[in-house]
Amino acid sequence: LKQALAVQLEQSPYLNLLPESRVREALRFMGRTPEERITNDVAREICVREGAKAMLTGSIGSLGTHYVITVSAVNAQNGDVLAREETEAESKEQVLKSLDRAASTLRGKLGESIGSVQKFDTPLEQATTSSLEALQAFSLGEAAHLRLDDAKAIPHLKRAVELDPNFAMANATLGVAYSNLTQGQLADSFIGKAFDLKDRASEREKLYISSHYYDIVTDDVDKAIEILRLKAGKRIEDRGERVATEGTIQTYVHHNGKLGVLVEVDCETDFVARTDDFIGFAREVASHIAAAAPLWLSEEQVPDEKREAELHIFEQEAADKPAEIREKIAAGKLQKWLSEVVLLEQVHVNADKHEGKTIRQLQHDIAARTGENVLIRRFERFVVGE
Length: 386
Prior knowledge:
Elements: H1 2-10, H2 20-29, H3 40-50, E1 54-63, E2 66-75, E3 81-89, H4 95-109, H5 114-119, H6 124-127, H7 132-146, H8 150-163, H9 168-180, H10 184-196, H11 203-217, H12 221-238, E4 246-253, E5 259-267, H13 270-273, H14 276-292, H15 304-317, H16 323-341, H17 359-370, E6 375-383
Antiparallel strand pairs: 1-2, 2-3, 4-5, 5-6
Helix pairs in contact: 1-4, 7-8, 7-9, 8-9, 9-10, 9-11, 10-11, 11-12, 14-17, 15-16
């Protein structure tokens, strides 16, 4: 049921689940084994160490022939319950459906909009399997696979596929495990089947399946990289409604003391705001602003009258060109001008270091690395005498 709950919640752009790798790493720092069962007290300590805002707890109990399922989100700092949902399943076969409803309702209680919940809400039976036994076997196999112990993972994953041959993620993970053990024919078979079944998976899992299909089965590395970039970009786009209320203000002052910059870059958690990677990004943006002197943060901030005035100038410059291309020339010059005066559209001044990426692309990169919504909120550039 933990695996099923994770699949449901991972669909949300509002929630960012702590990866199993970071949970295991935190356990090691705590002097515990990565396989140790996590109690509520241990979970709260992990949350505090990793900067997680809440921990999720769940329980299931029998009530006659029915089952009562409870899911709660608890404040990691003080133990207060942030949200709680309880539901009842009429039979064992209805447990996954009931958990699905409870998780969707919990997302709403945690602040996610109704529209977002409805948009990112692939039913569990479609995203995973309708078989609790298959899901249990997959969970054991997935845990071993994430510990890089594919030899132990394979028997559990094979059992999951035997119980439900149409379990897309079980087929995909089994194929990847076989690939890691250099058993190419078996890897191609299971990943190929997962690819055929990918429409039964969630959007995130579709990208996982497709990237491994092109990487391992067809050996089309460029296509696999394209899908992975799409995966990162899609998560960033989906995070758009998540609020960035933490962050940092960084400065740049030129050595002659006559030029200075202030920039505010925001994220979702204080944990990320204090990391060297995030602070380094903000400093890179500040130094770029000092050198490139952008006038506006985004295209939306460019006043309409200024945009129209520049477009009029470019139309005048193209007046001697054929009528059929005159408009395109002016529009192209306007776009080039915007890329020179709008911060997010500017290529970073240190193009070699940043591979010719724009500030917007670098912002997307840091968002992908941190798993949070990252925004350049505002900036100010000061020049003595101006």
